[in-house]
Amino acid sequence: MDEKYPIGKFDWTGEVSALQRETWIEEIERLPQRLRASIEGLNELELETPYRDGGWKIRQVVHHIADSHMNSYIRFKLALTEETPTIRPYYEDRWAELHDSIQADIELSLTLIEQLHKRWVILLKSLSDSDYKKSFYHPESKETYRLDYNLGNYAWHGNHHIAHIMAGRSRIGKG
Questions:
Q1: What residues have CB less than 8 Å from 28, skipping those under 6 apart?
Q2: How far apart are the C-alpha atoms of 19 and 152, rounded to whole Å?
Q3: Which one, of 160, 132, 125, lies nearest residue 146 by Cα?
Q4: What is the pLDDT of residues 3-41, one digit of tens each?
Q5: Domain assignment of residue 72, given as a range
Q6: 114 vs 26, 70, 129, CA distance in Å?
Q7: Residues whose CB is less than 8 angstroms from the CB of residue 105 and which lie 6 or more positions away in sequence, other chains included
Q8: pLDDT reported for residue 155
Q9: Position 104 in a domain
Q10: Residue 57's beta-bridge partner residues?
Q11: What does the pLDDT read at residue 12?
Q12: Rounded to whole angstroms, how far apart are CA atoms 13 and 10?
């Protein structure tokens, strides 16, 4: 198994059916509960366990999900309200090293993710087929991404990091 990509990389086919979008929305909707379940029973010391050698600590992964999903939600709103906006990239590795990602109680991010995902799912379920074809430009990759791609990518992103947390649990014998 690839420790960095335990569920593989996001596979984009270019065309997304309404059924596929519905599945991805359900995954985004379920993520907060799955995330809570994945860290259940871990103490403060165990949250300091890296999910792999050279990887982030479980605590950092939880905070990263909040950071990343907030950025994605904003990107959706920008793409829906502007004509192919240029989004602001961020250095996730640097964000993960900031004090709030290293020291803060994970409950802060768990609550944030729960509330953010409630709003995000309301937005996602309201979008039309043509809305999902709207896009934003990412200056770092120099690519334009459609919202249906971003939806799938973030459904994958949550599953990807749940797998990291489960790998971390296995490392401490709680897998």
A1: 117, 120, 121, 124, 151, 154, 155, 158
A2: 12
A3: 132
A4: 999 999 999 888 899 999 999 999 999 999 999 999 999
A5: 18-171
A6: 14, 11, 26
A7: none
A8: 98
A9: yes
A10: 50
A11: 85
A12: 10
Residue 7 lies in a domain: no
CB 113 within 8 A of CB 69: yes
Residue 152's nearest CA partner among 29, 17, 12 is 12
9 in a structural domain: no
- Radius of gyration of the chain, Cα coordinates, nearest whole angstrom: 16
What confidence score (pLDDT) does residue 70 get?
A: 98
Residues in the chain: 175
Which CATH number characterizes residue 144's domain? 1.20.120.450
Joined together, the tokens standing for residue 18 give 């309404």
Residue-wise pLDDT for 46-73, tens only, equals 999 999 999 999 999 999 999 999 999 9
CB 58 within 8 A of CB 47: yes
Contact 80, 151 (CB under 8 A): no
pLDDT value, residue 168: 95
* Number of independent structural domains in the chain: 1
Kindly state whether residue 61 falls inside one of the protein's structural domains: yes
